[in-house]
Amino acid sequence: MLPVSEFRILDINSAYWGVSTDALMEQAGCAVADLVMDRYPTDGRVAVVCGSGNNGGDGFVAARHLIPYKDVDVVLVKPAQTIRTEAARRNYSLVEDNSILIDDTSLDEYSLVIDSVLGLGVSGRLREPFLSTVEAISSFVGPIVSVDCPSGMGADVAVFPDLTITFHDVKEGMGEHNCGEIVVADIGIPYEAGAFTGPGEAQLYPIPGIDSHKGQNGRVLIVGGGPYTGAPALAGLASYRTGCDLVHISTPRSSCPAVSSYSPMLLTHCLEGDILDGTHTRHILDIVPDVDTVLIGPGLGRAEVTLEAIGDILKLIDIPVVLDADGITAYGLLDEPPTLDNLVLTPHAREMESLTGEACPSDLDERAQQVLRTAASLDATILLKGTVDMISDGRRLKMNRSGNSAMTVGGTGDVLAGAVAGLMSKGLSPFDSARLASYLNGSAGEMAFLEQGYGMMATDILDRLGPSLMSALEYGRGI
């Protein structure tokens, strides 16, 4: 059973992996028509009541396949010019001669009603004309068949059908109590759409409200630097490129000038000395109440006092955490790692081996199982970087193929970690932050490769994180 939010992602990623919305709509409508013919073979007029979105499009296809065999009316809730998607409009054009507006008919005239009005994700109070339409369908005394889900499911008023024909999988919240009999139809969603990330993941992105102000869209603290100055700066700028509002960087004084020089946007807090140590713990914890997510590790190095200090910080922190590079090393050395409610680790293969004590398998299926097991045992989300990234929270697994072989250049992991932290600061779950960041980072790398080829640098990827996000969002709008 999948969350409702995942099905929009599946639709978009299906198109990305080669199965168009038109193809899915055709399969969905065919499945509905076939089941209706099988379950309700008798004569009588059929009303296919259609909304203005892709759920209505499924109804248009079902009506087209039923028309040769039954007396069918396509009953529009709103005028045809309000149909929202290209795929639905194309399918409406094929049944236009059989269409009427719901205001011009009574459902009492029909022997069967097919409910194809509203899809997934409805909540709250229904607006007109959908409220009166749902009420009219609900009061129908004959058999009702709902397409994908009952219209209004999740709202204050909903259709209660005799049969719900749902696609690909049962949706979260569906059951006999609100859907009647449920039949799951396979409509050809490709394996890759569910197994791999794609532009559909951008549907997870929280678009800022028009009246939001500074700080409401994410605040990140990065604990990094000392031996290496570029890593925390790259991570901080990547957090900005994912749309967070403020980035603080706590870094040893030896690296403060270099980190600050990357951008005036980086709010740099200087820690006395050349490396992180236990004397800095309180200073860092004092900043924590002012941020939403902490990223620990980029450029810190592996001095014993540094690793001990990271362990002390982790035991006292109570907000979402991302661990990268030396932060992962410190975490792996703890005898009893603290249980953190929202934790992401971003290891490469060698760091994964240090976490698990076993070799990282080269076989993708075996590697996926290792990531699932380790994430479950640590109660954390793991983003294992590689030719194919593996992302798991111990229950779910996504893989990511975006990117290219030029992304072995130093700093790409810092950009990825900063993107994860930025997304977490905006309220995304650890798993959703990791999978969206993984896709965006790889997609940005693909954009950079088109211009820079094998000479691209991490800063080239950084500069294209924003365009990568906007490209994915725009791709989704076209589906």
Structural commentary:
- This protein is of the alpha/beta class and 479 residues long.
- It folds into 2 domains: 5-195, 3-Layer(aba) Sandwich (Rossmann fold); 205-477, 3-Layer(aba) Sandwich (UDP-N-acetylmuramoyl-L-alanine:D-glutamate ligase), CATH 3.40.1190.
- The chain has 18 helices and 16 strands.
- The strands form 2 sheets. Strands 10-9-8-11-12-13-14-15-16 form a 9-stranded mixed β-sheet, with helices on both faces. It has a 7-stranded parallel β-sheet with strand order 3-2-1-4-5-6-7, covered by helices on one side.
- Helix 3 runs parallel beside helix 4 (86-93) and helix 11 (304-316) crosses helix 12.
- It is elongated, with a radius of gyration of 26 Å.
- The two termini are 23 Å apart.
- The model has no long low-confidence stretch (mean pLDDT 95).
Radius of gyration, in angstroms, nearest whole number = 26 Å
Q: By helix and strand content, what is the structural category?
A: alpha/beta
The shape is: elongated
What's the name of the CATH homologous superfamily of the largest domain?
Ribokinase
Uncertain runs are none
Q: Could you give a short account of the major beta sheet?
A: 9 strands, mixed
Q: What assembly state would you assign to the polypeptide chains in this entry?
A: single chain
Q: What is the β-strand count?
A: 16
Helix proportion of residues, in percent?
40-55%
Strand content: 15-25%
Number of helices: 18
Question: Which CATH class of the largest domain?
Answer: Alpha Beta
**CATH architecture term of the largest domain:** 3-Layer(aba) Sandwich
